[in-house]
Write a structure and sequence with these properties.
The complex is a heterotrimer of chains A (327), B (305) and C (335). Chain A is of the alpha/beta class and 327 residues long. Helix content of chain A is 32%, strand content 23%. In chain A, the strands form two sheets. Chain A has an eight-stranded mixed beta sheet, with helices on both faces. Chain A has a four-stranded antiparallel beta sheet with strand order 2-1-4-5. In chain A, helix 3 packs parallel to helix 5. The two termini of chain A are 26 Å apart. In chain C, a hairpin with a 2-residue loop joins strand 1 and strand 2. Chain C is built from 13 helices and twelve strands. Helix content of chain C is 35%, strand content 24%. The N terminus of chain C is likely disordered. Chain C has 335 residues and is an alpha/beta fold. Classes of the chains: A alpha/beta (327), B mainly alpha (305), C alpha/beta (335). The interface between A and C is large, with 43 and 46 residues.
Chain lengths: 327, 305, 335
């Protein structure tokens, strides 16, 4: 039953320097990802949820070393990605790809669709000649539901949904092992979202992909993920098997989050006991002392405000970082 | 209740076609060119410019007079159809029309070469500086800043004084200074391009930095570069004319529009045609280039996309 | 006019259409729409791109782009707002109708303090004095849940978060105690927990002030939590209209059914997700018959030949379809 661990992230921390308001003040440190750890097995899909400022996008990019993490380890197939040289890292990218949120912005407006999709091939399979590349591109276009004849069109000629398919084609053409999907459907119309999610599920099965699915949309995360990580202000507040976490959230923030998510059923919506959170999420520039969620938490006590709780097991397959876990 | 899948597919195909996938693929450059053609001032200027260039390069073969041969029969003669000197002659008896055409050629050659030099150096320098960022960028840009602070004209004059009035040196000197602004512009554009998602996507695809610069950044600079180049050409012609006017430009017997204007200004009261014709050509050249540059800027304007 | 004051119809759209003049020809964004909104009622307008849901209400507010033209009637308490002169419309717009947009910066002037923007409304539309206006504005800020309102009163918009800005825009809209509040995707750009707070706000305040609420959204979850009645729009027309419970339990139009079956839920595992093939309609090339026919899983011959009208299919339940009330199995395509 033990699946191979494909990616193991340990104590990852990514920080940025932000210029401070005063003229002579030193720059402030923004900790976007704060001591995040998780283990991802081959073939599983990990959903990462959280609201703006929680660091989920930064986490995704840090894993791929598109952003440089300051502390921690990223163990990919046994090697720590943070130790690799630029050259070695570039080679490793063959197996780890990304799909972006804004489909059209992620495509070079001056390149044809064929060239865009073929770019990873020019990097990792340079021996292919033009005809072979074109064949591979058309093959993958068909797999993602694009008409192969459109190979010479330009990105601005496509709708959002089609552009996202192009992005997906580019990401899978080298048959990577891991794909990080950064809010891939948030910018699309509702009826198109379903199409793209269905496509991702199909490709996942066909190519045996391992996915990290980052989204603020809980419904979509529930649909596609096996496991889930809940982030708040850069920290993992809860983690575990998707169905368990969604049905029996242990951390107050997770409870509040799920309670706030709209349910497309009027009777259920009316009968709901809603947890109403006060105020806005704090700024990552000025994180609260102790537990990051304490200022808005209705269960907060003195210890919550002094020291950040460590992650502990709630039940098999679920962990949460809270002094007042609800079991 | 009969389903009609065939009819529905036909309909779907029809609608998909109609949904704007034109039979011919429209690249952004083609879109821009289309917009340019709709700009009347730009189109008129392109026509004028083409005529001027043609005339400047072919004209001299059609005129019986050379640009440096004095016509002993006609010194300082005003324009007339009778003796064949349509623009008149100068104090040395040389046909003004021939000189103006020749001068235009020289001015254009200087401008085009200098622009080419400035584009090539400026784009590479700016793109590398902008993409590399950090210390490399800081050092490269400080160098540009220092160069910028140089009193430009003095520098050119200094070169002229040291190395003599060599036409090629003139090209090089002007080009060597124009690239600074091009580099700055390109660097600025590169900085904003760097933030765009498709560059991140290229990095995620494992592409090497130099390849990213040449495949992704430089092609996306086409708009601003072309516009700036188009607006640089008139500036260079004007600068060259200015230098020639001061006496630092091309030497005899070569001539340029600037030199002609300089000579014309001296004799303005007695032989006005010596000023009017070269000046007229210069103005026509500059205006048409400026309108084309403006038109290009509007055509490439991202707001329209 | 007397009978309209007695009856509780607030807004009535009659044969309402909007068209835009474009270089490629005339595009009809909204076609012959009929809709009634009662006082204090909460109606959700659901649709995707090209449905015309936003344009409908921008047209009523007089905020259409320059190349847009309205036709038909939009009767607010019996008065056709489409026929009003700009100055009269300004007056109605500030006092009786208000609109809140997805981006709060649409309504906020970045160079003016919040205080000024709030009090201006009251001074101009309701003739308050400066002091009275300030007090009323502060009061409203408290009611919309802005913590420490007196301090925030003197800030500029950029000094506040997105959620705060949206609250202020709602405060501005409600200050003049309008009879009709139109909210166009007001929470789409906000985080889930903030969205919940803002939706609660809409709920509570409109109930308190008996303001009719038109909530334009694409999110069926938002609809379920807020609306009394729902109108589903597609390609510029209303294709279904029903009380909210009815609409979810028993959708009459295949588009509604397919939409409902194609969205995942946070509270349940969904194994079969319906997929609606194709793309949102291109208004310049609509089919002759039903505009949903190219994508409809139940399309038949008659759907392609003629466009169905919005008809009563069940008590208080209208739909524009010749084959209303599809069964769920018919709607699910291979997922």
């Amino acid at each position: 039953m033990a699946e191979r661990s494909l990616l193991r992230v340990e104590n990852l921390t990514t920080q940025f320097d932000v210029p401070s308001k005063g003229f002579f003040k030193p720059p402030l440190t923004l900790t976007a990802v704060n001591n995040v750890s998780f283990d991802l097995s081959e073939g599983r899909t990990l959903g990462i949820v959280g609201e703006s400022g929680c660091g989920k996008s930064t986490l995704g990019r840090s894993i791929l070393r598109l952003l440089k993490a300051q502390k921690g380890r990223i163990l990919w197939q046994g090697r720590n990605l943070l130790d690799l040289s630029d050259e070695e890292m570039r080679a490793a990218r063959r197996d780890m790809q990304i799909i972006f949120q804004d489909p059209i912005a992620s495509l070079d407006p001056r390149m044809t669709v064929g060239d865009i999709i073929a770019e990873p091939l020019t990097v990792f399979e340079p021996k292919l000649n033009r005809a072979q590349r074109a064949e591979r591109v058309q093959e993958i276009m068909a797999a993602v539901g694009l008409v192969p004849e459109m190979i010479n069109r330009y990105p601005h000629e496509f709708s959002g949904g089609q552009a996202q398919r192009i992005g997906i084609a580019r990401a899978v053409i080298t048959r990577p092992k891991l794909i990080i999907c950064d809010e891939p459907v948030s910018a699309l119309d509702v009826s198109i979202q379903g199409q793209v999610i269905t496509l991702l599920r199909k490709l996942r099965k066909e190519f045996g992909l391992t996915l990290i699915f980052i989204s603020h949309d809980l419904s979509v995360v529930r649909l596609i993920s096996d496991d889930v990580l809940v982030l708040y202000l850069g920290k993992v507040v809860e983690a575990g098997d998707c169905a368990t976490v969604f049905d029996k959230p242990a951390h107050p923030y997770t409870q509040a989050l799920f309670s706030a998510a709209p349910i497309p059923d009027p009777k259920l919506a009316r009968g709901r006991q809603r947890i109403r959170l006060q105020g806005d999420p704090p700024s990552p520039l000025n994180p609260p002392k102790g537990c990051v969620f304490s200022p808005r938490c209705w269960k907060a006590t003195d210890i919550c405000r002094t020291e950040m709780p460590l992650s502990e097991e709630v039940r098999p397959g679920q962990t949460a970082a809270c002094y007042h876990i609800e079991r | 209740m009969i389903l009609n899948p065939a009819k529905r597919e036909l309909l779907a195909a029809e609608l998909l076609e109609a949904e704007g996938l034109s039979p011919v693929s429209r690249s952004l450059t083609r879109d821009a060119l289309r917009r340019l053609c709709r700009n009347k001032a730009a189109v008129a200027s392109i026509i004028v410019l083409t005529l001027l260039v043609l005339v400047a390069f072919i004209g001299p073969y059609l005129i019986p007079f050379g640009y440096e041969d004095p016509d002993w029969a006609a010194f300082r003669s005003p324009p007339s159809f009778a003796d064949g000197h349509y623009f008149g002659t100068d104090p040395n008896g040389r046909d003004l029309l021939a000189r103006v055409l020749y001068g235009t050629r020289v001015s254009l050659a200087v401008a085009l070469t200098a622009t080419l030099v400035s584009v090539v150096i400026g784009v590479l320098y700016g793109a590398i500086s902008g993409y590399m960022g950090g210390r490399v960028d800081a050092v490269m840009m400080r160098f540009v800043d220092i160069m910028y602070a140089f009193p430009y004209i003095l520098f050119v004059i200094l070169l002229m004084v040291i190395f003599g009035r060599n036409v090629y040196l003139l090209f090089a000197a002007i080009g060597a200074l124009e690239w600074l602004t091009m580099a700055r512009i390109v660097r600025g554009q590169t900085l904003s391009l760097k933030q765009r998602e498709f560059i991140e996507a290229a990095r995620a695809s494992g592409q090497k930095p130099l390849k990213i610069i040449t495949r992704h950044i430089i092609p996306n600079l086409v708009g601003p570069v072309v516009i700036f180049a188009a607006l640089t050409v008139p500036e260079i012609i004007a600068t060259e004319s200015f230098l020639s006017y001061l006496g630092f430009g091309v030497q005899e017997p070569l001539t340029s529009l600037g030199t002609l204007i300089s000579e014309g200004t001296d004799a303005m009261e007695s032989m006005p045609w010596l000023l009017v014709f070269p000046a007229g050509f210069l103005v026509a050249l500059l205006l048409s280039l400026l309108f084309i540059g403006d038109g290009l800027r509007d055509a490439f304007d991202p707001r329209d996309r | 006019m007397q009978k309209d004051i007695k009856n509780d119809t607030l807004l009535e759209l009659k044969d309402y259409s909007i068209s835009f003049r474009t270089p490629e020809g005339e595009v009809k964004a909204v076609s012959n729409m009929n809709l009634t909104v009662k006082r204090g009622e909460r109606i959700a307008i659901v649709g995707e791109s090209g449905s015309g849901k936003s344009q409908t209400f921008l047209g009523i507010m007089g905020l259409l782009a320059k190349n847009g033209r309205t036709s038909g009637q939009a009767l607010l308490e019996g008065r056709d707002v489409l026929a009003l002169k700009p100055r009269e419309l300004d007056h109605v717009r500030g006092k009786d109708m208000a609109m809140v947009f997805q981006d709060p910066m649409t309504a906020l002037n970045p160079s003016l303090k919040i205080s000024r923007q709030l009090t201006e409304q009251l001074e101009v539309h309701r003739g308050f004095t400066a002091r009275a206006a300030s007090n009323e504005a502060l009061d409203m800020l408290k009611r919309v849940g802005i913590p420490d309102p007196s301090r925030r009163f003197n800030l500029y918009p950029h000094e506040l978060s997105g959620g705060m800005r949206q609250r202020i825009v709602i405060a501005m809209a409600l200050l003049t105690k309008p009879k009709l509040l139109i909210a166009d995707e007001p929470t789409t750009a906000l985080d889930v927990t903030i969205q919940a707070q803002i939706l609660d706000l809409f709920n509570d305040l409109t109930a308190e002030m008996n303001t009719a609420l038109v909530m334009i959204t694409h999110d069926l979850g938002v609809v379920a939590g807020l609306a009394d009645r729902v109108a589903v729009m597609y390609a510029g027309r209303i294709v279904e209209e029903a009380p909210v419970d009815e609409l979810f339990e028993n959708p009459a139009h295949p588009y509604t059914a397919a939409l409902h079956a194609s969205i995942p839920r946070p509270d349940q595992d969904v194994d079969q997700l319906a997929v609606i093939p194709g793309r949102p309609p291109n208004l310049q090339h609509l089919p002759k018959g039903c505009s949903f026919s190219p994508r409809c899983p139940l399309v038949q011959n008659d759907c392609i030949d003629a466009a169905p009208r919005l008809d009563v299919q069940a008590p208080r339940h209208l739909a524009a379809c010749f084959h209303a009330f599809p069964r769920l199995e018919e709607v699910l395509t291979n997922g």
